[in-house]
Structures are given as structure tokens and as C-alpha cells.
Amino acid sequence: MDSNIDIAAPAITSDHSWFRVGDYVGWQRDGSLQLRPKFQRGSVWKPSDKSLLIDSLLKGFPIPLIILQDEYPEIGATPIRRVVDGQQRLRTLISYIDRSLLGDDIKDSDYFTYRPQGLHHTHPGHHFTDLSREQQMQIIETRISAVILNSRTSEPAVLEVYDRLNRTGTKLSAQELRWAKYRSDFSELCYRITRDNQTRWHDWGIIANQAIAQMGDVELTSELVLLILDGVQKTGKRELDEAYENRDLENDEEEFIIHVFNSIFESLSFIYDSSLSPDTIRPFRTKAWIYSLFSYRLYLMGIINKEGAVTAAGKSFDKRGLTDPDINPGWIEAALEAYKNARKSDASLARAVSGGASDRSSRQRRLDFLTSTLGR
After folding, report:
1. What is the mean pLDDT of residues 143-161?
2. CB 159 within 8 A of CB 181
3. Nearest in space to 260 (alpha carbons), one of 219, 284, 231
4. Averaged over 207-234, what is the pLDDT?
5. Is 60 exposed, middle or buried (0-12, 13-18, 19+ CB in 10 A)?
6. Could you tell me the sign of the dihedral formed by the alpha carbons of 230, 233, 238, 244, in that order?
7. Where are the strands (E) in 62-170, listed by range?
8. Which residues sit opposite 20 in a β-bridge?
9. Of 9-23, 201-215, 260-274, 304-318, which one has max mean pLDDT?
10. In whole angstroms, how far apart are CA 334 and each of 53, 76, 130, 363?
């Protein structure tokens, strides 16, 4: 019996090299480094992780290799070096040496200082400019091994490399994989809306920083966009995958979605921007409840009916025919009071209003709760 295993010819060809940290910084400066391709996650490293990397460079510890792919905009042009794996390391180094090179993409997590191992946590730490010239050059001249994928490596093969490398680290979220795999009008619109509302997710206490780094904010935005388009529905992995892969949008649809989304978020800011202590609206700072409050505002605007179905006005994508109800400062207090009473008196309703279930029946039950409690 032939025990040989038939292995197909390799689909990936690559070269091995090394580059100094200063090379990566220079490429970022001249725009030839694509630090975060579409499939890459956000910055997920903690300040302690970043400090440890700087400590490793200063003490000569080996650094894991970087995987790049050269892309040529045109024949003979300077290649664009796309970071397939190693974004967290390179972003840490670039932000430490010269944060301004990140441009408009600077995040709060890019502000960190280096604390040598064993230094008390109350010490403010060291900026790059605090280091001696010798220490600065130690970092800049550190060589990091690199694998450069051939420019003809197919996109599916590049994604397979990325997926395999990350299976041994922090597991990629369903939304990160979805974003990497599919490109459509729908996915681009959801990402754009998320960026436009980027600070709200954190400031409102709806999504934790770690979840935001793994595109949890984009996933929730996608669910809310589908709510505008399809009414109250279950939006699990399958539904979101299908929307990302197959949903095409016309210009009037995109303009309508953006208008409705921004209008509702402006109204919700009157609730979620509250900074009272103790936090009186804490029960509503969940993904389940922002979905429900969003659906209630859709109902008030005439886009969905009480049954959660899209109305004729909602299907027309004509924002001129929508109502724009005034904000009643007392409605959230009334909802909170009813919420507390419901938890005590109705077990099934309590499960629906207290839990984070995303099935259609639970979502509809929460909408029924709001419309019956608050009316129009």
C-alpha cells in the first residue's frame, strides 16, 4: 500500500530577508508601508505589552519575524509593503519613535511610555526622546527578520497565511474574518459609519476597548444598518456573512441609511452622553438595548411599524417623507422605571428585557415593551 501523501504544489512563494526598525519607520514616513491592510485587526496590545517590546529591543532579545507582501502600483514603481503579520509590533515601534507618522489613524492606545521591567507602576515612564542617543540607535538599528510574499500571491492565500498565524494567538473574531473575506457596498458603508461614530462606542460604554479592537463596533453598526433595511430580524453570523457577501446598495439607499443612522444617534446622544454618578441608565448600556432603542426611534420616524416590519416609507429610501420626533427628556426615565417593574412582575418579559438575546422574538419583545410603555 502506497503510504506517500499527495501534497499539492505550494501556492505561496516567498523570500527571506531582514530590515532594521529604521527601515519600517522610513517606509511609514514616505507612505510605502501599508501598516493595516483591510484584513488586519485594530490595535489590541496593552501598554504593558508595548513597553515589553521596547524593553526587548533595548536588551537585545530576539523579535518574532514580520510577514510582508510587496505590491507594485505599476511596473518599475517603488513597492508598497503590505503588513500581513506583525502590525502590532510595527505600530508599537512607529508610535513610540514618532507617533505623528500614524497621521489621522492615531488611537488612544498609541500613547504609551516605556517602563523597564521592575520599574514601579507609578513612574511616568520614558518617551523615546528621554532615551540616550545610544539607546535610541539600539532601537532604530535592531534587525527584524522578515518573510516577503511574492506580489503574485493570491488574496485567498494571503488571508490563509494571516488566519493560520493568528490561530495560535488571540483568536480572530467573526467580524474580523468577515471583514477580511468579503468586500461589498454594505461592508464599506458599515465601516464608514462606524468611523464617523468611533468615539461614541467607547464613550457611551456600549462596547469594551478590546471588542472595539476586534471590530465589535463595526459588527454592531452592521446589525443596526440591517435593522434600517430589513426591520427587526435575527442578525447572527450567517445573516451578517450573507449581507457582507451579497448586499449591494444604490446611492439613494446609502444616503438614506447615513441620514437615518446619524439622526438616531444624535437623539440617543441625549441619553448616552449622560455622565451622572451613580449612572442611572447603566441597564441600557448594552448592545441589546441600543438595538432596541434604535428600533424604537425607527418606529417613531415611521420606518418600521409596531411589528418591526419596514413600512412603505422605509422602503422608499426618501428621507423627505420621514418624521423627526422631538426628544422628550422624560422618556428614558419612564422606560427605566417600567424596566424595573417588568423585571419584578413578568418572568418572560424580564428575560427578554434583561438579556442580550439577538433572536427576533426577544428583540420584538423589547420593541413591544418600549412602544407600550412610551407610546408615540
Report:
1. 76
2. yes
3. 231
4. 88
5. exposed
6. positive
7. 66-71, 80-85, 143-149
8. 143
9. 304-318
10. 51, 66, 55, 19
What are the φ and ψ backbone dihedral angles of 65, each rounded to 5 degrees? -70, 160
Non-local (6+) Cβ contacts of 264 within 8 A are 294, 297, 298, 301
CA distance to 59, 89, 230, 325, 353, per residue, from 55 (Å): 6, 13, 51, 56, 48
Q: Give me the pLDDT at residue 7, please.
A: 47
Helix (H, G, I), strand (E, B) or coil at 313: helix
Is residue 26 classed exposed, middle or buried when 0-12, 13-18 and 19+ CB atoms within 10 A define those classes? middle
Domain spans of the chain? 14-170, 177-374
pLDDT at position 45: 79
Please spell the DSSP secondary structure of 209-246, one letter per residue. HHHHHTTHHHHHHHHHHHHHHH-S----HHHHHHHHHH
Cα–Cα distances in Å, from 218 out to 74, 182, 192, 211? Answer: 33, 14, 9, 10
Phi-psi category of residue 148: left, alpha or beta, with phi > 0 → left and psi -120 to 50 → alpha: beta
Sequence-separated (6 or more) residues with CB below 8 Å from residue 105? 36
Angle between helix axes 331-345 and 347-354 (nearest 10 degrees) is 130
Q: What is the pLDDT of residues 77-120, one digit of tens each?
A: 778 888 888 888 999 999 999 999 988 888 888 889 998 865 55
Contact 369, 353 (CB under 8 A): yes
Q: In this predicted structure, what is the pLDDT of residue 1?
A: 46
- CA separation for the pair 274, 29 (Å, rounded): 40
Which residues does residue 143 pair with via DSSP β-bridges, in sequence order? Answer: 20
- What is the C-alpha to C-alpha distance for residues 198 and 106, in angstroms, rounded to an integer? 12
243 vs 352 pLDDT, higher one: 243
* Closest by Cα among 44, 55, 346 to 215: 44
353 close to 364: Cβ distance less than 8 angstroms: no
What average pLDDT score do residues 8-21 get? 71
| Mean model confidence pLDDT for the chain | 82
Residue 61 corresponds to which amino acid?
F
